[in-house]
Structure formats: C-alpha cells, structure tokens
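Supplementary Methods S3. Complex input for the heme C-bound model.
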Amino acid sequence: MCGLTLFTNPLAGQAQMSQASQVSQASQAITTSGVLQETLKTCFSCHGENGISSMPSHPSIAGQKGDYIAKKLTAFKMAGKTHDANLENDIDDSVSNKGTRQGRLRADPVMEHMIKGLDSVLIVRVAETVSKLACRKETNRPKSRLYPAPRSVVECIACHGSKGLGKRTDTPVLAGQQRSYLRRQLLLIRETAWGALPREGESARAHPIMERQVARLKIQDVDVLAKYYSSLDCRGGLSKK
Ligand code: HEC
Ligand code: HEC
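Predicted complex, serialized as structure tokens:
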C-alpha cells in the first residue's frame, strides 16, 4: 500500500545485511521518528493539542480513521498538481484519481501548503499515529443525551452508523467533530453537487457518494445535522438515539 513495501526486498535476509547498512538503517529509523514528531507538532498547532481541535473551523483529527486521513491528505496533495508526473508516481492510484472531479478531489489552500513536504510514506505514518490518539479528553464529556436526533439523519445512518462513528475505514467519524467544520464540509460538497467548479485558491470538495447524499439537503438540515453529529460522543458510548 505504501512506498515502503516497494523497496523491501524479500530475499534480503538479516544475515546478508552488512554492518554498515544495519547502522544506516538504525539511524534512518531515528531520523524518521524525529521527522514524524516534528511533523505532528506542526499539525497540532492548528488541529489542537494531540489532535483535539479547539477551533470551530479546524477539524479534530485525533482518533479519526487512519485510512480516511491518509486518503484526504493525499487528496490535498494532489489538488492543483494534476500534471506533476513525479507526484503521480508517488501516489497510490487507489486513493486518488489524478485529482479529477471523479476522483476524490479536496482542495484547501492551507492544507495543500501543509502537506507539500510530506511523501506518501510519511503520510501513512502520520495518519496511523493520529488515528490512535484519544479523540477527546477524559474531562470533556459530550452532551449527546440533550440533543435529539433530527429526522434527516436516517439518510446518513447506512454509512455513518447510528453513533456517527462510520462503518467503513474510508467513512470518517463525525461524532464529536467541530460543528462549524461539519457544516462547512456539507456546504462545500453540496456546492459541487450543484455543479460549482473549484476555483483556484479556494476550498472545494468532491465525493460522488456524499454529493448524492447532500444535493437535496436544505440549509436547515445541514445546520441541524452538523449540530447533532458534533454533540455525539466520539467514543460512541453515550449516544442511545
Ligand atoms: C495552518 C493550519 C493547519 C496545519 C498546520 C495543518 N492543518 Fe490540517 N486542516 C486545516 C484546516 C483549516 C482544515 C479544514 C480544511 C477544509 O475546510 O477543507 C484541515 C483539514 C485537515 C484534514 C481533513 C479532516 C477531515 O475530517 O476530513 C486532515 C486529515 C488534516 N487536516 C490533517 C493534518 C495533518 C496530518 C497536518 C500535519 C501534517 C495538518 N493537518 C496541518 C488546518 C491545518
Ligand atoms: C453511502 C454512504 C454515505 C451516506 C449515506 C452518507 N455519507 Fe457522509 N460520507 C461518506 C463517505 C465515504 C465520506 C468520506 C468522503 C471523502 O472521502 O471525502 C463521507 C463524508 C462525510 C462528511 C465529511 C466529514 C469530514 O470529516 O470531513 C460529512 C460531514 C458527512 N459525510 C455527513 C453526512 C450526512 C449528514 C449524511 C446524511 C445526510 C451522510 N453523510 C450520508 C459516506 C456516506
């Protein structure tokens, strides 16, 4: 799945490995983990301490599905770079589609800038690490019981589950996510469904499945769905609705 597998030669056993290459591999591992830590520090400067966001426009990433994070980071990387042959080689075809609308386009000037320096191996490592972080602080209990499920949620349950945790690895956790962020994503996807073309330097989001879901949603539904999902527990425990 990631670039690493391509470079692993199954015939190169430990015994054949020279001492020099063992030393270089060890120091490489240390550098990689240093790079990972530095990268995460940058991510958390916007996405909150340990990936739990305190800013309404910035999503929490802690505890999000690893596959989903990797796909979205790859999409940000592909945005606006459809003609870069090197990049296309660098990216797993199954997670993007050369940035076309039919593929999983996702554009956002800030995230496109942030992701520039990350290769596909680091993207996967960042995604895996972030996905294992606690999605909320122990003290920060959600108020899910106070907010009733809106009727429109029946359309969403098939994929996002009754607790908003997402049934598949490519379906994001919505429970406990920042409300303004969820609202904005629904509106961005709806714009695409309505035929808007992405404009240079502006956020855009295309996803054929989700476009079908939101195309007919009224603004009131969007508001109430964003409010509902943000009020659920990201761990799934409290939601009984
Ligand atoms: C300068 C601020 C900033 C930094 C630094 C940053 N992000 Fe983001 N990130 C954002 C914003 C804003 C969005 C929402 C974009 C949108 O509206 O589509 C976002 C969106 C995302 C998403 C999509 C979330 C979802 O639920 O679909 C992921 C994943 C993500 N960022 C991961 C990262 C990672 C990993 C890093 C570090 C390599 C990082 N971000 C660094 C601001 C930042
Ligand atoms: C057929 C499956 C399916 C249904 C039904 C569905 N979704 Fe989704 N949803 C997805 C998938 C897959 C994604 C990931 C899209 C991507 O990769 O960009 C997603 C993404 C989202 C996101 C973006 C989350 C983020 O972190 O950025 C929101 C918000 C969302 N869905 C809300 C809803 C709502 C509200 C409904 C009901 C009206 C709904 N979805 C119905 C499959 C579905």
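Residues 39, 42-43, 45-47, 57-59, 61, 64, 69, 72-73, 108, 110-111, 114, 126, 130, 172, 184, 203 surround heme C (ligand 1) (CB under 6 Å). The chain has a mean pLDDT of 82.
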